[in-house]
Fold Tetratricopeptide-like helical domain-containing protein.
Amino acid sequence: MISSSVIQSVVGRLSQRVIISNSNNHIIKRGGAWLSSLASTNHVSTRLQSKYLCTINNNSFFIGQCREYSSSSSSASSSSRNGGIDKRGSLVQENYNVMTLFSFKTDQIVKQADAHYRNRQYQDAVTYYEKAISSTNDPIECSLLQSRIASAKFRGGLLSEAMNHFHTATKSIPYSHEETYKILAQGAFMLEFDFDLQVNKESKESQTMLARASTAWDAVIDCAPNKPDGYVGKGRCILKMSKPQLVDAMRYSQKAISLDHNYPPVQSFASEMLVIENKELLALQLLNKFFKNYKQFYEDSFIYKIDNSTIGDNYFRRGLCYLHEQQPDKAVLDFTEALNYLQEEEHPSVKFFRGRCYYAIQKYRAALEDFNTFIKYNPKHIAAYEERRDVYSMLGMHEHAEKDQKIVQKDREKKHDQRLESIQMYNEERLERIKRRNEDIAEKKRIIRMKQNEIEVADYKEKK
C-alpha cells in the first residue's frame, strides 16, 4: 500500500519544483520477551524460551550459509571464514551460496528440495525436506530443515502450518549458531505478514499482532546486531503503527543502510524513508539497485517473500524520484509499471503523478485522461483541477479550462473567507479572554477592598 507519509511529503514539493549472549545456554531478555509473546500463540517451545541445550558438532556437518543473498563484502568475509577461498578459485566462485550446512547424504536431498522451492513447487519441496529429515539424526540439521519446511509452507499460503514448523525449528538450534538469527527473522516476518492480512489494521487486535511482530524483530536485532534484517523489520513495524514515529523509523533505516545497502529489504525500506526525508537522489540509487537484484533474491530467500504491493510501491517511489530529478519520461514508465502491481483503489494516486509527467513531456491527451480519472475518485483535490486546467489550455479547450479555473478560484475565495473567519474568531476569542481577565482583576480588587474595609472597621471598633 502506498504510504500516506510518502505522498504527503512529496505532493507539495513536486507541485513547486537494537547485546547478544555468546553462550549457547541463555536467551537474552528481549529475545525471551518475544518468545513469550509467541508462546501465547503456541508457536514457540518452552525449551527455546529457557535454554538451548544442544551445541554445535563441527564434525557432523559443514558450517556455512543458507542460500541467501549477500553483498559482495559479506561474500568476501564469508570466503575468508570458510578457508580463505576468494573469487579467483574458479571451481568455487559462488562459494557463499553453495557452501552446505548439511552432511553429504542429507545435502544431496536438500539440493533437490531447494530446486523445487526455487521453482515454486512448494509441496514437492516439503516432501524432499521431510525425506532429508528422515536421513539425519543431527538435531541442528533437523532444525534447519524444519525452518525450510516453514518457508515452503509459508510460500504456499499455509501460514498457520508454517508457524508450527517454525516452532519445531527453534527447539534444537543453539542461540549462537549463525543461522539462528535467520530462523528468528523468519518467524518475525511471518508475524508481520499476518498483520498485513488484517482488514482493519487500526483495531486493537491488529495492533496487538503488530506489537508482537515488532518485539520479534527486536529479538532478531539482539541475536544479530550486525545484520540489517532486524532493523528493517523493526522500522517497517513502526511505520505500520496507528501512530507511526517517523524519527525512530528513520533511525532504524539509517542503521540498516550502514550495515548493507546492497540488501534488497534494506533498499526497499530505506528508499521509502529517504523519500520522506526529501532525499530522492539517494532513494533513486537504492531503488535502481533493488530492481537489478530483487527477483533472484526473493526467489532464493528462506526468510522473505515479496508481494505485488511492495513491488508496486517501489515502482511508484522510483517514479516520484525520477519526477523530482526532472526525468518525467522515466517516471512515466515506473508509474505505468506500478499500476500493474498495485490494487485498483490505489491507481488514481499513481495516475495523478503520471499525469504531471505526461504534461511535462507534452502528451496532453494522456495527461488529461489521468487527471480525469484522479478527479473522478478525488473530486475535492483542488490541485488536480489546476493541473487539468493547464492541460485543457494546451489542448485549446478553453471553455473546460475556464470551468476548472472557476473551481480553483472558488476554492481560493473559500479559503480566503475561511482565513478571514479564523482571524475574526481569533480576535473575538482574544477580546473575550481580555474581558474575562479584566473581570477577574476587578473581582480580585473588589475582594481586596472588602477585606481592607473589614480590617479598618475591626480596628475602629477595637480602638473605640
About this structure: Residues 22 and 446 are 76 Å apart (CA to CA).
